[in-house]
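[Structure tokenization] protein backbone as discrete codes

[Encoding] learned vocabulary of local backbone shapes

[Begin record] amino acids and matching fold tokens:

___
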Amino acid sequence: MGVDLVIFVVSMYALTKGADFIIDESQKIALHFNISGFVIGATLVAFGTSLPEMASSMMAAYSGKNEMAVANVVGSNIINIALVLGIVFVMGKKIVTDRDIFAKDGAWGIFPVMVFIIMVIDGSISRFEGFLLLVMMVAYLIFLINNDGELTDEIDIDEDEVKKSFDYKSSAILLLVGFVLVIVGANFAVDSASNIAKSLGVSDWVIGLLLVAFGTSLPELMVSISAAKKGQGDMVLGGIIGSNVSNFTAVLGSSALINPLSIDLAKNSFDISSLLIVTIMLVFITANKLYTRSAGIVLLIVMALVIEHSLSL
């Protein structure tokens, strides 16, 4: 257990440093190309941090563990909203956004979840439905491109100097290093945490439902905290919404193409209901711009209830 604890600490450090690289270089890219922080968060950051979910869900589907592939996505989205945003809001630094998240992106916050629920009513997601989910991902990208405004985020670096000194090669390398650190760090964090949990006698079901989903959401958590500290409110919310859309379109869609996915609605009704509740909460929060400690505490309470229910199984 001692070795696993050391690995976990080192993995968390790698996640932190990788998140800093991603945020810094994403800011520079946004400035250079006059792209809004929200769109950078909803695309580059969101897809990059969703790679752990994609890798684990696709591997689960390939191995015939269909419900694990679906549970990972459901759990990751619950954690993205309830835990990640909850922690960011409670941190104390007020989240300020230049983009009207609710007016422009509210539908994308809940639409993929509703489509998912409709698809699994029959207990499965077919290859054709997986293809439709991938089409939805393309539609989301087109939407972002057509509805982007110029960069207005306040960034604590010299904009003119960054634009003059922008270097494609160095930014690409640092972004790659950042993504490698968060993804590799997340994988080692999951493995070490799972070993620690097993040594403490925690059940395999709880490990799969909570630790795998939490581990694959670690990149979103670290990147969101880093972005919040740098005053990047648009990037925080863009990353969460974009990651959730990516999970229910690109991740589930590609997994279903590998192997049709099945899910027991009766057995997993609590998790799916929790997913719908936190998604509605996200839309409500963005509609009223409740980016406050109080909202964060409520989200964390919901997360605690989900964990308590899982531990009671």
About this structure: The chain has one domain: 37-149+187-311. Confidence is low (pLDDT under 50) at residues 150-159.
